[in-house]
């Protein structure tokens, strides 16, 4: 009789332990580390997206979220990026924080994810979908206006402008070029604008910029719109020894491009805030998971013009260097 009673007590204790484990997340689901948020971006190698990841990790720690980070090797590879979204859907994530390679080609898979009940937060690069909960990043039209302001600061009587833009299917680059053109075309000193589109790689931008400059010796202003093309243009200016007679306005910052700003291959950097994009992307994901849906649908993370004249000022140094990821 006593043995039967003891067995019953042990059985009840075991059931209680199992219940507590399931309530506290210590059962099988927690053991497998079920992902709550998937961050899928355009690239994982650039200084820009490493800063995005640093901000995202800070928010993930603060909000106690499990966040995975993924992206294709090439910023043109929307096919691989679509497969990454499909895998996140199969993994049953709650939120996808997404930076689109291609405004249109990524739209269908993002729509499928949203139809499954997965919340979508866009950072940096937009996607053609009405099912996005929040868009976080640079106001690209205004960033283009700032690039124009930096370009027009040159004291030449006549301006011949060369634009080295990247993939025509990226919303960011097209919006930046639009804002730039709308502004510079109002200045009577601007006599001609030439645009080339290159792959979003340093090598392709370098080759394209050199060809453009060699084909038209009148070009005295060059503008480009992301980290990789900025490096390529800087190297092209160095290759051709054009630093003294070509005003270069570039985007983003890393150790190399800041060095180019110091030595004269680049004259101005339009610096975004990728750390804030990553942090706010994950913070927004946390809010959506918790049922908070009343936040803003668009968040502008702002840009700053940094030149050789102001690059050593405290605020510029903070913008250029403060959010580098620590190993």
Automatic annotation (TrEMBL):
InterPro entries linked: Bact_Solute-Bind_Prot2, Peripla_BP_I, SBP_2_dom
Q: Please name the source species.
A: Waltera acetigignens
Task: Give the taxonomic lineage as stored in the record.
Answer: Bacteria, Bacillati, Bacillota, Clostridia, Lachnospirales
**Molecular-function GO term, any one:** carbohydrate binding
Q: Which residues form the Periplasmic binding protein domain?
A: 37-292
Keyword Protein transport recorded? no
Q: Does the keyword Secreted apply?
A: no
GO CC term (a single one)? outer membrane-bounded periplasmic space
Q: Which Gene3D superfamilies match?
A: 3.40.50.2300
What protein am I looking at?
Substrate-binding domain-containing protein
